[in-house]
Amino acid sequence: MSAELKELKVRKLAEAEEVDFGPFSSYHPLVADGDTPVRTGIQVCKPGYEAKMHWHPYVEVLFIIEGEMDAWQEDEDPVRLTAGDSIAIPIGMKHSFRTVGNKTMRLLGIHSNPDRVVNYLDGETREHGYPVLDE
Fold first, then answer.
1. Which residues contact 80 (CB under 8 A, 6 or more apart)?
2. Sign for the pseudo-dihedral over CA of 52, 58, 64, 69
3. I need a surface site. Which of 14, 33, 63, 114 has the fewest CB within 10 A?
């Protein structure tokens, strides 16, 4: 089901919640109330971060704001992305990404769904598709 947007919706990064994704990453949900046809957020990834292999039941688009990352689908070679680049990931494609180099990478994640849904191949998901962190 797709939510219908009927008015302007403004969200400011400076006012966004910070969700812990572990020692090397955090996420700031922006348009993320479940009442729009898309969900967006900024992910900040320090050097050494690598996302667990996962997939979404919708198209995901990642836009690199700063830094560099390698992104890949399961069993394929990575593609290098730098600031200004974007990648569209098809429905159900198992994929991952990691920060490259010694600089922090920031990306805008655009989920073509009102809610963030993440299915990890090896790991659990908590509310809003956030990863369950090891204690």
1. 68, 69, 70, 100
2. positive
3. 14
Domains of the chain, each with CATH number or no CATH:
41-121 (2.60.120.10)
The CA radius of gyration of the chain, in Å to the nearest whole number, is 14
- Per the CB < 8 A criterion, the answer to whether 44 and 25 are in contact is yes
Residue type, 9: K
pTM of the predicted model as reported, rounded to 2 decimal places: 0.89
Contacts of 20 (CB under 8 A, 6+ apart): 26, 133
Give the tens place of pLDDT for each residue, 89-107.
Answer: 999 999 999 999 999 999 9
Using one digit for the tens of pLDDT, what is the confidence trace for 79-93? 999 999 999 999 999
Q: Which two tokens stand for residue 65?
A: 């704001």
